[in-house]
Every structure is written in C-alpha cells, then in structure tokens.
Amino acid sequence: MNFDFTDEQKMLQDTVRRYINEKIMSVADEYDRKGPMSKADAQRFLKELKPFGYVGTLVPEELGGAGLTHNEWPILFEELRRGYASLGGVVGITSNSMNRIASSGNIHLRDLILPGLLNGDTIICSAITEPNVGSDTAGIETTAVPDGDSYIINGTKCWISNGTIADYVVVTLKVLDPKTGDRKPAQILVDKAESPFATREIHKIGVRSFPTAELFFEDCRVPRENLLVSKENPAEASVSSLNFARANAAISAVGVAQASLEAAIKYAKERTQFGKRIGQFQLIQEMIADMSAEIEAGRLLAYKAFFCLGKGIRCYKECSIAKAYATEMAIRVTSKAIQIHGAYGLSDEYPVERYFRDARCYTIPDGTTQVQQLIIGRETLGMRAFT
Ligand SMILES: Cc1cc2nc3c(=O)[nH]c(=O)nc-3n(C[C@H](O)[C@H](O)[C@H](O)COP(=O)(O)OP(=O)(O)OC[C@H]3O[C@@H](n4cnc5c(N)ncnc54)[C@H](O)[C@@H]3O)c2cc1C
Predict the structure, then answer these.
(1) Closest ligand 1 atom to the C-alpha of 157?
(2) How many angstroms does the Cα of residue 24 sit away from the middle of ligand 1?
(3) Kind and range of the H or E run holding 286
(4) Residue 383: its pLDDT value, please?
(5) Ligand 1 atom closest to Cα of 367?
(6) Could you give all domains of the chain from N- to C-terminal order, each with its CATH number?
(7) Burial class, 202, CB count within 10 angstroms (exposed 0-12 / middle 13-18 / buried 19+)
C-alpha cells in the first residue's frame, strides 16, 4: 500500500492549488451571486483551465485529451471544488460526459464533436432524470421512435446539470421497436443546433451558478447516426458512468468541506473572545479536530473509489460508500464551520454559508444517500432491497 503521490502528481496538485487560490477563489463569491453561469463565462473558464488537464481529463492524448488517469482526477477536482464548487460542477460534467463520447463505439460522432468539446468551445451534459423518474431509472418514459433516417424523441428531462448552456445532451431514453412494441434502453446524442429543444432553469439552494435545467423534447428529430453505440451494453455503460459520478461527488464534497475547514481555521486564529483567540478554546479545537478527521476519511474513501475505477475492478460498494459518507460528511463539516464563525457564519460576508448551501446539494444527485445505502447493503449482504 502506498499513500504517496508521485512527483508529477505532487507538482500537478501544487500548480493547480496555486492557480485556484490566486485566480478562482477570489472570484467565486462574485460569480456565484450572479446565479446560473452564462455560456460565455463557462467557455472562458474551460479554456483557462484546459492547460491543467481539466478538459477531457481522461480522454486519451491521441484523441486530443489530457490523457490523465483516475488517480489524477480527484487531485484536480478536489482543488477546483474547494476553490469554487459551481465551477467544479460545470467543468466536471463537461469532462465526464466527454468520456462517454470518447469511449463510444460511434467513431463518426466522436470525431465530429470531440474537438469542439476539447477546446472548450462546446458544452455537453447528460440527461437521465425525469419528472416521474428519479432514483428508479428503470422507469424512464422518454422515448425515441424510429422514423426513416431519424429518431423522433418525446419526453421531459429535469435537474440536468449544464442543461441551459449545453450544445449537446447525452439523453438516456428508450428506443421503441415498432415491430414488437418493445422499448430498449439506449443513449442518443442530441445536438441542440440541429435538433432544437426548449429549456428552463431550475433555481436551487446551493451551487447556484452551476446551471440546472428542465429539457423539453417535443417531436425532436435526431439523425439515427446519433445513437451512441457502446462497446459495453447500455445498462453496463450507464452503471460504470454512475459509479464514476459517485466517486466524483465524493471528492467534490471533500473539496467543499476542505474549503470550509480552511475558512474556520483562519477565523479561529483571528477572532478573539474572553481575551483569547477562539482557536485556543478546547471546544473550538474539538470541532476543528472532528472536521479534519472526517475530511481525511472522506478523502481516503474517494481516492480508493477512483483507484478501483482506474483498475477496472468491480467497485459498486467502494463508490457508494465514498459517495454516501463524503457527501453527508460535508454537510456536518460545513455546518461546524458556520458554528465556529458565530453569527458572521450565517451572513454572506463570509464564504462558509455558501459552502454549507453547496454541500447540501451533493447527497441527492448520482443516487441519494438512501440509494447508496441500499447498494452497500446489497453488496455486503448479497440481498437486494430494491428490484
Ligand atoms: C444538483 C443536482 C444536479 C443534478 N444533475 C443531474 C444531471 O446532470 N443529470 C440527471 O439526469 N439528473 C441530475 N440530477 C437529478 C438526480 O440524479 C436525482 O435528483 C436523483 O437521482 C434522485 O431522484 P429524485 O430527486 O427524483 O428523488 P426520488 O427518487 O423521488 O427520492 C425521493 C426520496 O425517496 C428516497 N427513496 C427513493 N427510493 C428509495 C428506496 N428504494 N428506498 C429508500 N428510500 C428511497 C430518496 O432517497 C429520497 O430521499 C441532479 C440533481 C441535483 C440535486
């Protein structure tokens, strides 16, 4: 077992941390107050972050990607979420959805759209959730009906990250077989310019500048060649990308929790009461100690999940444990950061109220904490609590 970063990984972390401390953290509050990020701002940030490996992180170099591994992803994204959680969301969804395109067996589509995604000009998102379909994704209602050289898509997707600013959407739906009437799960890429659809922004408690949208597909005509033929079967493909998303949610939560710990330490060293800096009080130190220990546990779980994903080993349990623990942990830790700030922690004069609101958003996407617990239970007991 080895807990050390390689020299290259250490250098990556130092470089990225310095950049984020200087250029990103200082603008996070200002941007977050503006609400959902504009497409122009997202494109500018993507281009700025590309040299560090944030765009097409895992896409092989021969396809124009950063060619990094599952061991570097958490280094990059803990730092970005620590600096500005909403931006980490915009960039993470784009970079992760790109993996789906790069690994698709649809070479035509890959070669057509990957270059624009990799240079930060175009934005992509992934749409699974529907108004009646949350945790139980087997019930997906959005349907594609073959019609000549096209599919006609009808359905509504909701809570789609990057939904209002995306040029492309990977839509998880069911394709109707007109002969048998069967509906088979599939993923189809929708190019908004070619196949327009309406969107509506959904405003939420935290990660406020991370766009989240409803997408309305009404007789949306999409070329048949946009079917993403996976090398794996579609069900397996969506599980492996969900496991990745869970590990990513875990490291994202660790990033936000770490930001709140750093803010709490700074405040505890500055604020004086009863003639002492509050950091000298043992009860404040207890909170700082608990926060540090919980963040470290969440970080180790997240790194283990990424390690298993990189090795290609079965890791439902590792990804679900990391997701469930780290995202719930971030709520506890950011709440303590507010407590250490006293009343000021509740005001928007300090960033800890934003960290708390941001942390609240991670226990629901990519499978709620309860769904993760059911997966952990299934993997541990060998019995399914849900069908
Ligand atoms: C910030 C954010 C970003 C998101 N981004 C995306 C995105 O990019 N793409 C996308 O497709 N979706 C996205 N989602 C949607 C997300 O994946 C769903 O919200 C999530 O799957 C849960 O579905 P739901 O909200 O409908 O809750 P429901 O499934 O309706 O659950 C409601 C409650 O019931 C509980 N519950 C459900 N089933 C069980 C069970 N069997 N046993 C015990 N308890 C259960 C849940 O834990 C929860 O507490 C996003 C959501 C958020 C908040």
Answers:
(1) 11
(2) 30
(3) helix 282-311
(4) 94
(5) 21
(6) 7-123 (1.10.540.10), 125-226 (2.40.110.10), 234-381 (1.20.140.10)
(7) middle
